[in-house]
Description:
Helix content: 25-40%
Largest sheet: 2 strands, parallel
Strand order of the largest sheet: 1-2
Order of helices and strands: HEHE
Distance between the termini: 21 Å
Strand content: 25-35%
Structural class: alpha+beta
Number of strands: 2
Shape: globular
Amino acid sequence: MSTNARMSNAKRSIAVRDKVDVSGKYVVLIDDVVTTGASMASCVRLLQKQGARGILCFALTTKNNK
């Protein structure tokens, strides 16, 4: 799947749950694997739009990890 396709899919499938207020808060994102970074980037953009004060991202591995 291309990076553009992954970005499009991530935008449609990621949301902040109702009643969860991240406004003014620091958020830690943990992902199991980063392939293209599309889901992480979509999460960051969404959290920024929701008013998160800061976002720290971690991934356990990458697609090319040997």
